[in-house]
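Structure catalogue
Derive tokens from sequence
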Amino acid sequence: MISFTRRPRFGAALGTETSGLAEHGYHVAPTARDRSTAESPAEQLHHDGHAAIAMGRLTGNGPHSSYSAHILGPLMFLGIGIGATIAPAMNAGTTGAKAQDAGIASATVNVAQQIGGSVGTPLLNSLAASALASFLVGEDANSQTVQTNAAVHSYTVAFGSTSAIFAAGASSAARSYESATPNPGVPLTLCDG
């Protein structure tokens, strides 16, 4: 029989990223929205770089890293970075669509997001599983220390890969909007009549 123990700290750990998202959504996003007429989409999407930095910081953790010293900060930074990226990305994906095409533009952005999530999660899982398996080759797989180091190695590979994906996304967004800087006096709109 398998028994499960409650781990209240695990819930708190997951809540950290969520609180970063919520903090951004309730306090920072309205301010950013008010400034949106002065910022180009590339400037609004630079927060994807914050997510890349946060994931990169998580690659330095080891088996004895403490939550408060090594994980809490990057998770908060990740939550804020992702929270600051989602709304401008959705806005950028539908900006310039004609009124009659607004629904299909929004649906296309939603489908792209769903495909990214459904492909990205298994990809990162496969990378982590491969890293774990390759780490265990030639090692004593029954050793608790080896198992712990293999797990940390697999997480590090997944975090590093995620950081690279976020960095590529930030770079791609910046390049795609370099020549499309809006007039500072003209607000960005969802639909272009």
Q: What stands out?
A: Confidence is low (pLDDT under 50) at residues 1-14, 29-38. The chain has one domain: 17-30+40-176. Residues 102-136 form the longest helix (35 residues).
